Amino acid sequence: MTSTDDRRPRSQTLALAGTVFASVVVAAAAGAGTPLLSLYQRTWGFPLWQLTLAFAIYAVALLTTLLIAGSLSDHLGRRPILIGALILMVLASTLFLIDDQIGWVIAARAIQGMATGAATSTFTAAIIELASARHKPVMTVVTSAAPVGGLALGALSTGAASDLLTDPTRVVFGMLIVFFLIGIIAVSVARETRAPLAGAIRSLRPRLVAPAAARSWFISVAPLVASGWMFSGLFLGLAPTFDRSEFAIESGTLNGLIVALQPASAALVGLVFSRVRPRLAAMTGSVLMLAGAAVTLAGLASGSLVATAVGAVVGGAGQGAGFGSSLRILAPLSNGTDRAGMFSAVYLIAYASYGIPVLAAGALSGLSDLSTVVVIYCAVVAVLAAWALISIYRIDRRGNQSTTRSKGISS
């Protein structure tokens, strides 16, 4: 007998695949800028604080948009927000094509951040809602892997392009414009999963949405989300600098590879852990984050590129296991009226941890050497991971004890 899931129109299956593709490309555009920032610094000779500003302005713009407009698609629908965000991405990519000074790059990064802030939680909600009932758990994990996987693809491809091509910026961002146009078509074809709801203007009031049913778990997984994305920021924001200063790496391909190791590991391991019980995956992710921060710190302190790379992979695995499981824990605790708002709150924590510490590290690097800054950075990552492990273990244990008591009473 043919199931309802199997009778889904082929056009909607393709639209779902295209929407997932668009979400990856949005993240890839941000990752593509990372190796180029190092190239621009060598070419144009601007100071380190401008480089970290160009990196962090993306996260600041993203955070502001998430805080203000993160719930907007719960009121206007998913498609209008996604199409608008993809159009902004085309505009940002066009600015990269005409860049000849750091000011244009900073402007492009700011627009990228706005577009990603509008799209991130909306992509997550739309993909889960477009998926068939049977595939919703898997697609929830895919939505957690897409941002970090896209960052890895963007960094790696652009790093290689900077070695192989005389004009990598125009080739990479020209291709991204084509991909964004494909994404606009896919989203336009996809069915709307959210009917318009009153209160769109009111939803622009800055706020964090955490439904009562999800609140205790939201608080418990928040430090795990912060730890993972802060670790990701270390490699995507600071790696191009410490690759040159600590390891004397000038190759764009090798630089892009080291930058990409952490988010690539996060994306792959996040998919692998999709079949592991969410609470166990979250605790495992916390342990891996602790180990990854420690190994990375040891590698940088000893000047070992291999150890640093291993730390990136282990910590990336922790982010993948932890972030994917956090979304799987929270997703069933929300409904259609607050789903995008809750995911916005999750991504607000994620991207605040991704961008703000890097901006602070860039400022501190003018007062202290970079190695000392990285030591402090890794220590904060480890503390957040340990906090998450204890918090998740406690709430999981309370839940198990409640289940055991309920069974005892019923028997």
From TrEMBL:
Per the database record, which ranges form the Major facilitator superfamily (MFS) profile domain?
15-397
**Gene3D superfamilies named in the record:** MFS general substrate transporter like domains
Respond yes or no to whether keyword Transmembrane helix is given for this record. yes
> Membrane-spanning residues where?
47-69, 81-98, 110-131, 138-159, 171-191, 212-232, 252-273, 280-300, 306-330, 342-364, 370-393
Q: Which InterPro entries match?
A: MFS, MFS_dom, MFS_trans_sf, MFS_Transporters
Topology term for the membrane:
Multi-pass membrane protein
For this protein, the record's SUPFAM superfamilies field holds:
MFS general substrate transporter
Q: Where in the cell is it found?
A: Cell membrane
PANTHER family the record matches: RESISTANCE PROTEIN MDTM, PUTATIVE-RELATED-RELATED
Name recorded for this polypeptide: MFS transporter
Q: Which organism is it from?
A: Herbiconiux gentiana
**Organism lineage:** Bacteria, Bacillati, Actinomycetota, Actinomycetes, Micrococcales
